[in-house]
Amino acid sequence: GQQVMQIPQYQHVQEGEDFTTYCNSSTTLSNIQWYKQRPGGHPVFLIQLVKSGEVKKQKRLTFQFGEAKKNSSLHITATQTTDVGTYFCAGPGGFQKLVFGTGTRLLVSP
Amino acid sequence: EPEVTQTPSHQVTQMGQEVILRCVPISNHLYFYWYRQILGQKVEFLVSFYNNEISEKSEIFDDQFSVERPDGSNFTLKIRSTKLEDSAMYFCASTLGAGWSTDTQYFGPGTRLTVL
Fold it and tell me: Who among B43, B45, B101 is closest to A43 (CB)?
């Protein structure tokens, strides 16, 4: 079945450093969504990318959707302690089904 | 801001017992979902529900699982005979639109199920 992998699995950075997580799907995606899950919390929608090569920014977060629509990335500039959490990408796996990536857990030290 | 709510926040049960997890989706949303997340792992789709019917389900959602919308506001997930491996966080989600997976899914805070 469809698989969505993310690397790295875990990253520990110092506050102020940049962070990037990469998402790769085994199949072409019509769109990709990104979610953030704080420790002990639930997934919270961040953004959706639809077009090939699309780049979107939200303050310090930059999201990219690959040209082939099989990969995506999330880059955080100058991390803050509030960025701590697990970042998941998710793509459609059926008409109403989201297939989540394996997640990247980010830890930020002050 | 409207939100999805779930009760209870934590449920402890004995293996073989039935549990019912409850969710109240956002009031004008049409599509409802259950996902689960085993501790430290990714979020996995279980089932989607629209117009009082299951729309899609995963291989995890076997005969031990059922969903129901018993009234105009609640959406429930029942596990008939719990197993140890059912221990996980269960998230309910809802979407406003026509069920296309491009619609933003709003997740509830989750119910942590512990099967002893």
Answer: B43
